[in-house]
Amino acid sequence: MDRDRLLKMLPWISTPLLLILIVGAWKLSTTWFEISRFVLPPPEDVAVTLAELMRDPEVWLVHARITLLETVVGFGFALVTGVLAGAVLGRVFWLERAVRPVVVALQVIPKVALIPLFVIWFGFGMTSKIVIAAILAFFPIMLNVLLGVRSVERGHREVMRSLDASRWQTFQSLDFHSTLPYVFAGMEVGIVFALIGAIVGEYLGGNEGLGYMVVVSLNALDAPQLFAVIILLAALGSILFFAVHAVKRLMIPWHDSVIESSIS
Amino acid sequence: MHAVSEVQQSTPELELIAVGKTFESRAGSTVALTDINLSLAREEFVALVGQSGCGKTTLLRILAGLERPTAGEVRTAGRSLWDGATRDRETLAKLGLVFQDPNLFPWYSIEDNIALPLKLRGIDKSSRLARARELCESVGLAGFERAYPRELSGGMRQRAAIARALSYRPEILLMDEPFGALDALTRDKMNLELQAIAAASRATVVLVTHAINEAVFLADRVVLLSPRPGRIRSITEVAFARPRRLDLETQPEFQDIVRELRHQLDEEQ
Predict the structure, then answer these.
(1) How far apart are CA A171 and CA B129, in angstroms?
(2) Alpha-carbon gap, residue B190 to B228, rounded angstroms
(3) pTM to 2 decimals?
(4) Contact indicator for B227, B200 with CB cutoff of 8 Å
(5) Element (H or E) spanning A198, and its range?
(6) Local confidence band at B262 (pLDDT 50, 70, 90 cut-offs)
(7) Which of the residues A120, A177, B76, B209 has an alpha carbon 20 to 30 A from that of B17?
(8) Which of residues 98-157 of B touch A (CB under 8 A)?
(9) Which residues contact B170 (CB under 8 A, 6 or more apart)?
(10) ipTM of model
């Protein structure tokens, strides 16, 4: 009993400790080894810059907002198309067989290599980043849904069949609920991929977004700002991931992945 | 309960006429069942026993409309279950099926699982939940209405599955080794409850089991199937008064029947 509770509390104790350890090692290495401030700024410099950034409305209203928008809109497209494509390919076997080689080929292409192409096609604005975010998030969602649609338990199907349920009833009571955990598994990966797509898109083109701020800081050799923006990006990624995770907990409280996870 | 003598006069509740089932595969065809003839009177309790592979589960699946017979006909109250490749909906609505696994939906609470058949029948939420709660009470799940299946023990889940099958008051209850996964003590208890449930619901029951004493304890007639191809080897009447108590199993008459059936089973090996 007590051991279980301790195990549950463990991440809440270990995480701050690990953070303190990392920041401590960081601080020590900057003072003892005299690492150049351009390479590794001391943590307090980063903290000061971070505080400045967070007070700057332009960071929130322009850069963070743009990156967030690109990520969420791209993710939204990926969610809709990924669920549809996954459901259709999961149910229509001949179609899945027909397109499988192409899907696999598309999947193994390092998609970030295509980003310059999207910049040419869709310009330096938000559109190209949304497209990139959507494409990166699409595959994990589609593949998970495809798997989910096919993973409905045989015994459950027979229950519906023996009860003479219609197709629509079977979808409502069985397929929908049974596939939902897979949709969320895809979404949790997809939201992170969408953010990666948006940031890398901003690296390569445009003059807005947190990714653009990274490039600007790099060009100015402003290491504290570079670190601060990276921290902002990490926070943005965490917020997005936990938002998806929270929706999942709300929607499928019955699922193992929700019951067993002790985070958040 | 003891309506066996009436079988000849009235239309049987459930009737199998020369039922056969052959599975076709690339390796060739396998005859799973051949020439099964059986009539059940209303409220009769029949157990199907036999070694694994004798086709008893296939036979039950045919009765449930999950498998289509390749020969013969299944009738309930004179109506044929199959009309070509389609199943007779009115007949299906009279059947309740309990599987080997509880097959509860993990996303529904126990009461929602039990009420599922009623939901499919378009019964409004408050009356179907009222019925589900009433059933929880009668199968010993009171207090667990809102629990998820994963929070229940195996025996409790199977009770919920039985309650789900009873929710729409089926006239015929079909059970495929419903307690096969349970330990011996729980099983005895569940058998007692099943007897009470069958009597209270006044359903005609077909129970598939591989446990001979369970079959003799519960059934009015025990149908022994022989394997390869599955066919009826013998039908034994069990005339003990009801309700039967667990100590019946220690009576010599009970043990004689079990011994005879066991003997018949052993002969096949």
Answers:
(1) 21
(2) 31
(3) 0.86
(4) no
(5) helix A176-204
(6) very high
(7) B209
(8) 99, 101, 103, 105-108, 116-117, 119-120, 148, 150
(9) B93, B94, B95, B96, B203
(10) 0.88
